[in-house]
Amino acid sequence: MQSPKILAVASAVDLDFRYGCTPAWWQLWKGMYEAGVDLVVTPYRGRPVESPWWRVAPNPTYIEGESYQAMRNVLARVKGDRYLRRAETEPEDSSLDRLTRETIRRLVTPRWKRHLERLVERERPDAVVVYTIPMAHLRGIPTALRDRFGIPVIFYDGDVPMSLPEYGGMDTGFNPYHGADPFEYDLVVSNSEGGAPRLLELGARRAETLFWGADPEFFSPQPVEKGIDVFFYGYGDKFRRDWMKRMVGEPSRGAPELDFALGGLDFQGDTGAARLLGDVPFNVFARAISSARVNLNITRRPHATVPGSSTARPFELASSGAAIVSNPHAGIERWFELGSELVVVESADEAVSAYRELLADPGQAEEMGRRARERVLDEHTYAHRARRLLDLIGLRAGVPA
After folding, report:
1. Residue 309 DSSP one-character state
2. Rounded to whole angstroms, how far apart are CA atoms 230 and 355?
3. Pick from 10, 77, 172, 229: CA 20 to 30 A from residue 116's CA?
4. What sections of 190-291 are H helices per DSSP?
5. At residue 210, does pLDDT exceed 90?
């Protein structure tokens, strides 16, 4: 059987940018390799990073991308902040946003069109999949590739609903759907079941859901000493400051005998008495999870309230055998059994009670983590997700690696 070939046009491949989706793309692409896919990856930002699981093509606008990011960094520092922040509800399409899109349309999009046409002509892929690049930046390219080469072009948005115009995405990037035309793509895949109708409203001709997962070889229980009572890691606290307060800030003050630790950067809200550990490199993330007796899943408000909007974190924690305490998340029972494989709390008092119960009975915590990992192995690995993605595209798996 001939291996299917996919050209992946990715927001980034370099983990140093700390884009939330990039580690998940790595795991998904590994799963695709294991399903027999010949994968070629070209990054929209940063340099291409080779791996044993995919080949790479260059970024034709590397200098432009890094120059633009340097300018944003300077503007943010002038404002006394790390990022140029957007409002969390109905962020405006600012004059700078519009000027940026027009500049990209004139200078960047044509170069990417030529680059992708050359790549498709050389590689002859069965499909092109665009991974979470601001859709407007490639406007016109999917239609051109389909008309010239007759291949399907798929858009994969791993951050719905937060990427939708009413939320505006993360402060590290663009408002992804401003100026975009989802109808250009044969299929829009997202991580959110509840967000699919909104994608159709925005113009997608077909919207399907692919939940996040975990690679159980990387996210596995590690033989390390447990030195933290309660641990949370995240890319900042935008859209989750209320639950950070209820699950970290208030409990850490109300239960001073417990040791709370936070990994990551850009926590703007109430973190109470929690220790700040700074960034946790991806290659030691599984060890950091295993070093804690209780791990927190604090889902951002858009994902937590739009039903069936998966995030990577609960799958990663479960695959690592963690005892998980989570804030309410609409649809989380689709993936894990509440009370058996993880605990959901509704308030600061419930959070403290859950922490104390799990810490008082390490055997119970360990058994809950074991059941959660078994669920991942049965249903939520990236091998499962890779086969599902191939089915959605209409391709059959090749000879497994």
Report:
1. B
2. 7
3. 172
4. 196-201, 241-244, 250-254, 285-290
5. yes
pLDDT tens profile 183-206: 999 999 999 999 999 999 999 999
DSSP state for residue 374 in the 8-state scheme: H
What is d(CA 116, CA 138) in angstroms, rounded to the nearest whole number? 10
Whole-angstrom distance, CA of residue 83 vs CA of residue 75? 8
Tell me the per-residue pLDDT of 117-157, one tens digit each, with 9 for 90 and over: 999 999 999 999 999 999 999 999 999 999 999 999 999 99
Under a CB-based contact definition with an 8 Å cutoff, are residues 14 and 46 in contact?
yes
- Which two structure tokens, joined as six digits, stand for 105? 């349309």
Q: Are 322 and 372 in contact (CB under 8 A)?
A: yes
Burial of 222 (0-12, 13-18, 19+ CB in 10 A): middle
Q: Which two tokens stand for residue 77?
A: 């520092």
**How many Cβ atoms from other residues are within 10 Å of residue 146's Cβ?**
16
Q: Considering only CA atoms, which of 128, 152, 189, 156 is closest in space to residue 21? A: 156
Confidence of residue 80 (pLDDT cuts 50, 70, 90): confident
Give the whole-angstrom CA distance, residue 57 versus residue 41.
6
Residue 233: C-alpha distances to residues 5, 85, 274, 275 (Å): 35, 21, 12, 12
- CATH code: domain 228-379 is 3.40.50.2000
Domain boundaries, the chain: 5-213+382-393, 228-379
Q: Which CATH class name applies to 5-213+382-393?
A: alpha beta
Please, which pLDDT band fits residue 319 given cuts at 50, 70 and 90? very high
Q: Tell me, what amino acid is at 109?
A: T
Range in 101-105, 199-203, 297-301, 361-365 with the lowest mean pLDDT: 101-105
Same-fold call for 5-213+382-393 versus 228-379: yes
Across 268-286, average pLDDT: 94
CA-to-CA distance for 222 and 28, rounded, in angstroms? 22
Count of residues making up the chain: 401
| CA gap 376, 318 in Å, rounded | 7
